[in-house]
Design a protein that fits this description.
Length: 466
């Protein structure tokens, strides 16, 4: 039996504010033996929709503040453990904190290539029921993080390679013919490879709903690394983030040596707003093949977008540099990681090393605008405004559409008492921001977003859920 803390934390001033009362729901997630579970997803739901979502801290603790009376459901999940739910009725909950014990998940049934169809272990609790447009989408964190999550989703898709065989490069008429051939073949024999090929065709024909069901069927028939990855990537690309994370997790458990599966899981966690967990998965991916640059590039994008240091990233990016000392990104991303840790608050502590790394980066690639920009930021933090201006100008000239270069340059010109130049750079910044925002909005509207149905719940868009 678990108890619920339902404590009034905002006093009532009058009857009009009665509907705005707030309660706190707090507790601790732990294993059966009492050890705390960090990073568990603690989700408060109401009528099937997400009301609040957080993760448990290093001591397994969580705290949710909620307003509005009624029936809620608390859902606690963590990879490797069985999910647990707890009905909550506000305001009639019992006093005292929740103690939620999660039991270890049942081990997966090993796959075997017997004459029978392979059993699909741990069936999912969702289905993709339809599609909607971007207007129903949500997101986690700032727009910078949202754009980074979209970039990581595209990078993940790129890890699947191009459509192979005779299906690559076909026009629409030939795609239709090829689809008809595959459907006729499937009428005779239900084969995983045919479903996957048909999914590729459907995706090329912009029928994403049909494609995701084909990829799912392929994974059910043959839970291979390739089939898991195709299914999970399709879900992630179309903003079904929680289902994508679930399938990537199953795929990573079944294929623990798959570098791209872990990288995809990291991308899904990042899109969920679980930035630390995302970094940890990609760090693990980088350990599988330390010479491969792909996981490091994922980590670098996460570090670049993050306002706080991320776990394990600095260590892995240092290895990236050791493995590839002449790679401009290896030098740049390690410099950014160091700067995020101490540079902004203590610019003198790391500025020399950061400067050396960035100087090496721009010597390898003189047109590396972001590296010039970061150099300018480091110089400005140290009070070297004139030198900072030089780097900001180089960043702007290398990439005239780099909005932050214009913004930083405008600030620097203002400090140097050059108001006209500052005005021009501020104007350029506003123009670029508006143009990019419109382009990004259009791109997002072109992506079909999946509508996901969970067991015992009504259909709803799940683009924003982890």
């Amino acid at each position: 039996m678990v108890t619920l803390a339902c404590v009034l934390v905002v006093p009532i001033a009058n009857a009009q504010e009665a509907a705005e009362r707030s309660w706190k729901i707090e507790g601790r997630v732990e294993e059966a033996g009492g050890s705390p579970i960090q990073g568990a997803s603690v989700r408060l739901e109401r009528s099937g929709a997400i009301a609040q979502q957080i993760t448990s801290d290093s001591e397994g603790k969580f705290l949710i503040v909620v307003s509005g009376e009624g029936a809620y459901l608390l859902r606690i999940k963590k990879a490797g453990f069985q999910e647990k739910t707890q009905p909550i009725d506000i305001p009639s909950g019992n006093p005292g904190p929740l103690v939620v014990k999660l039991a270890s998940a049942k081990p997966q049934v090993p796959s075997s290539k017997s004459s029978e169809s392979m059993q699909f272990s741990d069936s999912t609790d969702f289905t993709v029921a339809g599609i909607t447009d971007w207007t129903a989408a949500g997101g986690h964190g700032s727009d910078v993080n949202l754009r980074t999550s979209e970039a990581l989703a595209k990078d993940t898709r790129g890890l699947g390679g191009e459509t192979s065989g005779d299906d690559a490069g076909l026009d629409s008429q030939n795609l239709m013919r090829r689809r008809d051939q595959l459907q006729k073949m499937l009428a005779s024999v239900d084969r995983a490879d045919l479903h996957r090929q048909l999914g590729d065709i459907d995706e090329q024909m912009n029928d994403s709903l049909a494609a995701v069901h084909q990829y799912e069927r392929a994974a059910q028939l043959d839970p291979s690394e390739q089939n898991y990855f195709a299914w999970a990537t399709e879900l992630l690309l179309h903003r079904a983030i929680q289902p994508a994370a679930e399938v990537f997790q199953k795929g990573a458990s079944a294929h623990p040596h798959s570098e791209r599966m872990l990288a995809g899981l990291g991308a899904a966690f990042y899109a969920s707003g679980l930035y630390a967990q995302a970094a940890e998965r990609v760090c693990t991916a980088s350990d599988l093949n330390p010479a491969d640059i792909t996981p490091y590039l994922f980590l670098g994008k996460m570090v670049q977008a993050s306002s706080q240091p991320l776990p394990c990233t600095e260590e892995k990016l240092a290895r990236f540099l050791r493995e590839h000392p002449e790679n401009a990104f290896a030098n740049y991303y390690l410099a950014v990681a160091l700067w995020k840790r101490t540079g902004e608050s203590q610019p003198g502590a790391t500025s020399k090393q950061v400067e050396q790394l960035l100087r090496k980066s721009v010597s390898i690639d003189p047109k590396f605008a972001e590296a010039h920009l970061q150099l300018g930021i480091a110089y400005a933090a140290s009070g070297e405004i004139t030198t900072a201006v030089t780097e900001f100008e180089r960043a702007r000239d290398a990439d005239p559409d780099l909005a932050e270069a214009h913004f930083r340059l405008a600030q620097a010109y203002k400090k140097l008492n050059q108001p006209e130049k500052a005005r021009q750079e501020f104007a350029a910044y506003e123009r670029i921001q508006n143009t990019k925002a419109a382009a990004i909005e259009q791109q997002r509207r072109e992506i079909q977003q999946f509508v996901v149905v969970y067991k015992d719940k009504p259909p709803e868009s799940r683009a924003h859920t982890p």
